[in-house]
Amino acid sequence: MYAARYTLSCIVRGFATTAKDISHLVKKNKVVVFMKGVPEAPKCGFSNAVTQILRMHGVEYDSHDVLENEELRQGIKDFSNWPTIPQVFINGEFVGGCDILLQMHQNGELAEELEKIGIKSALLETKSE
């Protein structure tokens, strides 16, 4: 499932260097992550943490490996005005990086934000059983 999305993003990513291209990528799915590596093999601890948090919530998301394309790596930083990777977008809006996503996960805000866009957190389903 993730591999198919990753393959598609590789094709698109080669051209995603302008703000318009990146804007299209962040709106392509309800949750989009720009990270180092891929979900199956993150290449930094922060990208791994984001992947684990989203996995715990059972979220399907598009991912883009910024290590594959330096223009995308810089372009996403310019687009979001955020200097670090990973970067998480929910419903086309920039949420933040690893620290912010971790904080949202810990205080329950992530589950709330996911619910607003029609994604039921797997953690909430576990608690209700």
* Helix residue percentage: 40-55%
How many strands appear in the DSSP assignment?
A: 6
Largest sheet: 4 strands, mixed
CATH superfamily: Glutaredoxin
Rg of Cα set:
14 Å
Which runs of at least 5 residues are low in confidence (pLDDT < 50)? 1-15
- CATH class equals Alpha Beta
Q: Helices and strands: which structural class? A: alpha+beta
Order of helices and strands: HHEEEHEHEEHHH
InterPro entries: Glutaredoxin, GRX_PICOT-like, Monothiol_GRX-rel, Thioredoxin-like_sf
Pfam families: Glutaredoxin (PF00462)
Protein name: Glutaredoxin-related protein 5, mitochondrial
Domain Glutaredoxin: 31-95
Summed up:
The protein is an alpha+beta fold and 129 residues long. Helix content is 53%, strand content 16%.
